[in-house]
Amino acid sequence: MTEVSVRSRSKENLLPHRIVLNARSMPAYAYGNRSPIWWGTVGFAAAEGMGFALAIGAYFYLVFINGNWPLSAPPPDLFWSGIFTIVMLASAWPNTLAKRNGEREDLTRSRRDLVIMSIVGIVLLGIRIMEFSALHVRWDQNAYGSIVWVLLGLHTLHLLTDLGDTIVLTVLMFTRHGYGKRFSDVGDNAFYWYFVIASWLPIYLIIYWFPRWW
Amino acid sequence: VTRAITSHDLDAVPEVTRLATGERGGIPGVQSEADAPPSPRELRDDQVDGPELTARLAKTWGTEKGLIGALSTVDHKVIGRRYIITAIIFLFLGGLSAVVMRMQLALPENNLVGPDLYNQLFTMHGTTMMFLFGVPIGEAFAVYLVPLMVGTRNIAFPRLNAFSYYVYLFGGFMIWAAFMLNIGPDVGWFAYVPLSGPEFSPGKRADIWAQMITFTEVSGIAVAISVVVTVFKLRAPGMTLDRIPLFVWAELINSFVIIFALPAVVTASAFLLMDRLVGTHLFNPAEGGDALLYQHLFWFFGHPEVYIIFLPATGWVSAIIVTFSRRQAFGYIALVLSLIATGFLSFGLWVHHMFTTGLPQLGASFFTASSMLIAIPNGIQIFCWIATLWDGRPVFRTPLLFVIGFFFIFVAGGLSGIMLASVPLDSQVHDTFFVVAHFHYVLIGGNVFPLIGAIYYWFPKFTGRMMSERLGKWHFWLAIIGFNVAFFPMHITGLMGMPRRVYTYLPEMGWGNLNLISTLGAVLFFGSFLLFLYNMVTSARRGSLAGSNPWDAGTLEWASASPPTPQNFDRIPVVTNREPLWANRDSLPVVAGLSVENREQIVSTVTAGRADLRETTPESSLWPFLAAVAITILFIGSMFTPWALVWGTPPLALALIGWFWPKASTEDER
Q: Can you give the pTM of this predicted structure?
């Protein structure tokens, strides 16, 4: 038997189709947990949240090992970190607007919200730089300094990636690509920002308040 | 052509309302682009049929020719094939390093390799087997098979998937290139501090180990997320949770374990790198750090790692046993719940790797109990498989032989594992060859034997050709005899006190004969792999043609051609049974109405598996490859200067923007 005839026979044993459903009228995308991207964002938030949890675990492990805390340094200043936290919490409001206007597929308002969110991100980054200078400890001074820099650095990394993402999306919405499925991306970007806010609160308490309570 | 369906037939297709949600895309009250009717100019698969449909879809979903095309492809089968082949190459490299070690240990006071090379060899062996073979091989099979088995056309986030492959490849290449240049890591596969810290390991060896972790874990997490979303959102309509194939369940749970376990090893290796490169003191007791913190972080990953290696194997075993028993799995729900229980429990055992570090008594007792507890879900799985075989009409082909081998070897390894769970015994044999014997029984029994069975089983799907059954039987007997001759004596050498990780020993110790037997077994075992390689290579070229479903199996991957066409299925199947191809023997119920000219696939709901959206999935793109190159430069550069994080970021950012920027030509942009 030649190879070709065997091939065609093996082709034949694919089952014939019986159409029972038509997808023509199904929508081309949707919002929130109906969209695969939303689940992907949740997945990354879970993995990164695990990273935060482990770093926080390492912090308390070191507290437990050492007994006295913070190690040979005064607790970090509250001024810049307080401003950072206020701005961070306040950003939830324009973020909610961005998500809502995205879902309404309102291009003008989405553009406005994204510009606001980009500016908020840049401002936060500026405050973050001031925060690092008010920690009163260097990363290479002792284990306390190291873990504080790790926690703050880890959060900064998330701030940076979300800011980058927001700026790219903002530019995108000002081009001819700004329609349709991109509005769903606006919602997912806003969702990730909630994660950045939520992950900040425990870290803020641990870095700035825990040493004062201990 | 729609045929009348009898309503009292259990495997009948349910009415359309139960297969599709029928919901709009936009939120209520909003005129959404999502609900715009498809362009009438675009050809859809209800307008064309037969070979023309196959050919047109193959063009839409195909991979371009040439090098750029090969590096741009996002086809899960192409990437999955590369993943599988790369992981198997690493299996052989890891095996070769083991053979060299066995050669050295064959005789007392042997001079084949010196202590420094021996240290590098056992580090490379462990690192390769765990990070470059063990984790990726399970994910590799998921990348290839999960989209086929859930009845879709590509993995979720196909570009992320392509990116993850290149990151894995470059990371593995980096560590082996370093080994070839005699700067391979020499601190063991878990690189404990203080040995791996800045004080005791100057030079770049430990950095290369730690950075390889970063590569493989970035890639591992990315694939895991793609697999989870594929299983959650891209299942064929009608594939409810209790119709998901057991292999897919295993890969799903495995992906969850990966998502929660790998961040721990990334944290450990990142802390280690920071201690070594920028002078942090996280593991330095002199400045308030702690060396055991490293062990906790490492083993919080390291124990789930064992199950990351084992869970995909349970999927292979379930698939093979069901097909060759000719009946559905006995205790499907029990099997799925056992997988989930194993996934959870795997996070509660890590301290049993640290019994000799001086733990509080309560901690030791707790972790002894939890270590014994995990034997329960694993035992349930074994009994369900045996019941399936018992009640079925088993056909003893090569894949099933390797599964039978798995039973014996894995159960033996599990028994020595229960012994090791008790603290007094563990303290006695800690760091001896007894432990080496135990975990090779568990890992080779629990992963490699099912893997070989899985390759024999799915090889016809991957290549369109059967592997030689005669060579397969030889392979099986050589492997099971070689394995036991190599590893069983190690239980005894361990009980006689021979420690791990020694490059030689004195003749007076009396370990010589047992070591010689182990080496002979190892050579035999390696020989079985050469036979396997020969069988794969010759069968891929000259094996008999397989046809789409050579084993008469029931799951959806066998409804595609062998090897599958780029689109996997000409139309997305509708699932009415756990074994869809056994329920529908004369025709396959399908969904029509998807685009023939653009890459569209069905997005369904998480639990009920009702069709919800027809969403486009990304086209080929070179950017994921470029992003992988950029991230490689950044990672390798940062081992030499922290400034690499600064100058390495713009190229990476550029590549990522290129990746996400929509192409003007796609239908999505009209």
A: 0.95
